[in-house]
UniProtKB/TrEMBL annotation:
Keywords, comma-separated and alphabetical: Lyase
PANTHER family: ADENYLATE CYCLASE, TERMINAL-DIFFERENTIATION SPECIFIC-RELATED, BLR2264 PROTEIN
Protein name per Swiss-Prot or TrEMBL: Adenylate/guanylate cyclase domain-containing protein
EC number: 4.6.1.-
Length: 415
């Protein structure tokens, strides 16, 4: 592109100077003494809102400005911020089904994802078979420009769009491409700040999805050295699917993966709802912890773990009803509950690490889960775990656990 016209240089410079200060802030210390590299920086939503306000005052009026980014999240494809008359709206796009979503396939964004080039519609052009452009045209818009943002990450698409109702559209902005050149430079000005936000979101989402919130926060905070572990106190939940081998042989790999996902959903939703963290999937098994921060919270955390187990059993009943309606056999799983101190941190090789918990308490929770099959109880908790619960629990019996000197009393939740 050519240089900006001289009459635009001052306005563009003021906008970029404000953007750098608002988005980056300053280096220094917070009031609590901790270091901060972004003192006084606005959130990205705040930056975008004020950026659009200033842009509107400079070369407006705009009827609509949007900025969108694609992320790496198991459930979300991305998100978009919309500015309309000084107001900000945020929308998230679900990942499931987006590739067959008609509004997406008939959109300017889809065209950009195929070409990686700007896209524009102006009044007087034929209105394309695109719901968005049809709506903008019906609302009296005269010009719409959409730009792909030049992220270093070329695997994901991020865009910024501008729309106006002014007579003649953006052509009176001057410069190359009938005003589009100026808008493109404006979109590129915000790109570095947009990308740093996107990269942080992607990193945190990936860590959250693959290692869990607690572990993800610690890894992102710098706890990446092999052997870097610390003791934490936690209630521990171990679950295991019944008849996994025989189910695999009957269903085959693809159908078994689908069933495993539905089975893990019965547990995952219940655990998250009661502030637990899934640390590991072990084939058809699952390991989760409910951290205990102090003695005052211990009884409540144990109660939360029990409630999560019971909620998972309730979710299982719903899943089995769906499976029966599909003409498929129901499934079952057992849950073992225990509590204690565990070592939480990095274990593995020099180049491949796993962030998990280990220790006798984890082993005992796993062995208690194994006994749910023998004792025909879907949920079993150790006596130590049960002792501080306020809810009544039913004594099932005592069993010797491998590695534990004395027999362990086992309890089941009351019906």
């Amino acid at each position: 592109m050519t240089q900006l016209p001289a009459n635009d240089m001052d306005g563009f410079g003021r906008l970029v100077a404000w953007l750098a200060q608002a988005a980056l802030g300053d280096t220094g210390k917070r009031s609590d003494g901790t270091l901060d590299n972004n003192l006084g920086a606005l959130t990205f939503a705040e930056v975008f809102a004020e950026f659009c306000n200033r842009l509107n005052d400079w070369i407006g009026p705009f009827s609509r400005i949007s900025i969108a980014m694609e992320v790496l999240h198991p459930e979300l494809s991305g998100g978009t911020l919309y500015w309309r008359d000084g107001e900000i709206e945020e929308r998230q796009v679900k990942r499931a089904g987006i590739l067959t979503w008609d509004d997406y396939l008939r959109s300017p964004v889809y065209v950009i994802e195929q070409t990686n080039r700007p896209w524009r519609w102006r009044v007087g052009d034929a209105v394309p078979d695109m719901p968005l452009i049809q709506d903008l045209s019906a609302q009296g818009n005269t010009d719409y420009c959409l730009f792909p943002l030049p992220f270093q990450d070329t695997n994901r698409t991020s865009t910024m769009s501008f729309a106006t109702r002014r007579p003649g559209g953006f052509a009176d902005l001057g410069g190359d491409d009938l005003g589009a050149g100026l808008l493109r430079r404006i979109a590129w000005a915000i790109t570095p700040f947009m990308e740093r936000v996107a990269l942080r979101i992607i990193a945190l989402d990936l860590l959250d999805a693959y290692v869990g919130k607690i572990a993800g926060k610690r890894v992102y905070g710098g706890q990446v050295e092999r052997g870097a572990v610390e003791p934490i106190d936690a209630a521990i939940l171990v679950a295991d699917l019944r008849g996994f081998t025989s189910l695999s042989e009957v269903l085959g790999e693809i159908a078994m993966v689908d069933l495993l996902n539905r089975y893990f959903d019965t547990l995952g939703g219940a655990i998250a709802a009661h502030d637990g963290q899934i640390l590991k999937f072990m084939g058809d098994g699952l390991l989760a912890v409910f951290p205990i921060t102090d003695d005052a919270s211990r009884a409540n955390v144990h109660e939360a773990a029990v409630l999560a187990a019971l909620a998972a059993r309730g979710n299982l009943a719903t899943l089995n009803a769906a499976l029966l309606a599909e003409g498929r056999a129901p499934i079952d799983f057992g849950i073992g509950l225990h509590a204690g101190s565990v070592a939480f941190g990095n274990i593995g090789t020099g180049t491949r690490l796993d962030f998990t918990v280990i220790g006798p308490a984890v082993n005992q929770a796993s062995r208690i889960q194994d006994l749910t099959k023998e004792l025909h109880e879907p949920v079993l908790a150790s006596g130590g775990f049960t002792a501080i619960l306020q809810r009544p629990m039913r004594l099932v019996g005592a069993r010797t656990l491998r590695g534990v000197e004395k027999p362990v009393e086992l309890f089941a939740p009351m019906p």
